[in-house]
Amino acid sequence: MTAAPEAWLDRIAAARDDLDRSSTAARVADLLRDQITAGLLVPGARLPEEELGKAAGVSRNTLRESFRLLVKERLLVHEFNRGVFVRTLTAGDVADIYRARRILECEGLRNAATAPPEALARLDAAVTAGERAAAAGDWPEVGTADIRFHKAIAALCGSPRVDEMVRHLLAELRLAFHQMVSPRDFHEPYLARNRQLVDLVQRGDTTAAERELRAYLDTAEAQLIRAYGT
Amino acid sequence: MTAAPEAWLDRIAAARDDLDRSSTAARVADLLRDQITAGLLVPGARLPEEELGKAAGVSRNTLRESFRLLVKERLLVHEFNRGVFVRTLTAGDVADIYRARRILECEGLRNAATAPPEALARLDAAVTAGERAAAAGDWPEVGTADIRFHKAIAALCGSPRVDEMVRHLLAELRLAFHQMVSPRDFHEPYLARNRQLVDLVQRGDTTAAERELRAYLDTAEAQLIRAYGT
DNA sequence: GAGTAGGGATTGTTCAACAATCCATCAATC
DNA sequence: GATTGATGGATTGTTGAACAATCCCTACTC
């Protein structure tokens, strides 16, 4: 016997939105977002309406709706009468993103004691996935697992709005990641620190965990800004 | 002699954006946002494309671009094939907004010690403006001064991204404010508490200030949710 | 009363057109 | 030689019309 008699109905209901219930503009935005976070669309690249619309198989108007969405997510910038471009982060942007991350992620750790067990489990799962990907030499996957880990930390706040903020912050940060020379050199040192962080949380020592997270973010920020040169 | 030889050039560059550099879609979005935050467009109201486009003097396509912006700001909701509506907050939404506010505003207070003096001055200015508006019986203005006060608290973080998050949170919250019966009854008790909060900050007692702010937000949230009934 | 077949109204999307703006190029001026 | 001015092509900004898809109300049937 499966769990509840209506479990499959719930699954259908949950997946309902993802089917047709979305406009083409939203789907094109998803497509572009994927290309950007995967690093295929590099910062500074221009997105011509006519050409891109033809490539995506949508009209200019629909494409422009997609652009508005991604501009609000700070992945694209819109220069009036000039077009839209993939955002290029300044060193100031990177600093501000880390400022916001420190606030939201540290708050997450402070709420670790009262967080539901499945939220804590997600922390461990993300770190484990990162370690496994590292063992397999799949460094891009290490990167996404790392991002999942930090989303899970912030999710300890238990706030959908905080979740969304962090999702946007980390998507933005990917714009900077792709200017790093080697994904491996950037991510490898953090594998052990992530594991240590989870251990501290599971041991209930949130104070030490927060101190460790701050140090973690400080060094990552410094490394990123150093690579930026700006 | 004026300061640097290029100082006026910098001023021009800084003011450059504010001129004509905005699309009609953005201007229409501003218009609608004003109507919503002023409470003239009530939650649940439907915004028909044809009719509204005619009223605003823009085409449907341009109007739809405006809609996308406001949907991302969570002031409108878009139901596929049904249209866009002014958002109606649930009790859960209100709770989540206050959860996020607690995080960001308390963090602001914790940074009060290292914040620049003009940021602290803005706190005092907002509270004073609220007191003056109350004396004049202008209760809507008391409300906007209160919002300015809380934006100033969060601004102590010194992060543009946090500023934007809080701006959106408070804009959303206005959707709930307008369901309150009397603006006066809602805002009046908080005038004295705001003043006390500023005093604590100026005295450097950020711990007491944070405690007071939490209590403040707790009661405001409870009051709002009680009025909601949901 | 429950179910169901129109059918009008609204949204989703495309297309074509034109004005406004940008940008590279070249010419003219001092 | 460097700055300014004019030219023209390319791209964006915005509009209007068109049509398919969908929703929702209504009238009808049983």
Automatic annotation (TrEMBL), chains A, B:
Transmembrane segments: none annotated. InterPro entries: GntR_C (IPR011711), TF_FadR/GntR_C (IPR008920), Tscrpt_reg_HTH_GntR (IPR000524), WH-like_DNA-bd_sf (IPR036388), WH_DNA-bd_sf (IPR036390). CDD domains: WHTH_GntR (cd07377). PROSITE patterns: HTH_GNTR. Keywords: DNA-binding, Transcription, Transcription regulation. It holds the Pfam family FCD. Residues 22-89 form the HTH gntR-type domain. This is GntR family transcriptional regulator.
